[in-house]
Amino acid sequence: MLSNAPRGRDHLFGDLIGKLDLLRIECSKCGRSGHRLADLLMRYGRNEKVFAFTEEVTANCARKQGRSDNDPCGAVFPDPPRVL
């Protein structure tokens, strides 16, 4: 369970306002970095789930498309557990 979140609640982009300027999406394998929160809010709105856009962000990942268990996509979101 992520801290400061009511039990069973999905985290929304609006929950990050004032806590982050950049939502980092890191992958040591492909060098992904992050997205400006303001851009995400404009694109998805404040009531969209934070992890709902994971598929879109990593859609061009060759490791994900290959679905290999030996070399999986390594994209992670390091910030939300610390800020939500």
Question: What is the count of DSSP helices, taking H or I runs of 4+ residues?
Answer: 4
Report the average pLDDT across residues: 75
Q: In angstroms, what is the radius of gyration?
A: 14 Å
What would you call the quaternary organization? single chain
Largest sheet: 2 strands, antiparallel
Are there runs of 5+ residues with pLDDT below 50, and where?
1-8
Shape verdict: elongated
Query: How many beta-strand segments?
Result: 2
Question: CA-to-CA gap between the ends?
Answer: 10 Å
Structural class: alpha+beta
What's the helix-strand series?
EEHHHH
Helix fraction, binned, reads 25-40%
How many structural units, i.e. domains? 1
Strand content: 5-15%
Written overview of the protein:
The chain is α+β, with helices and mostly antiparallel strands. The chain has one domain. The protein contains 4 helices and 2 strands; from the N terminus they run ββαααα. A two-stranded antiparallel ribbon has the order 1-2. The protein is elongated. Residues 1-8 have low confidence and may be disordered.
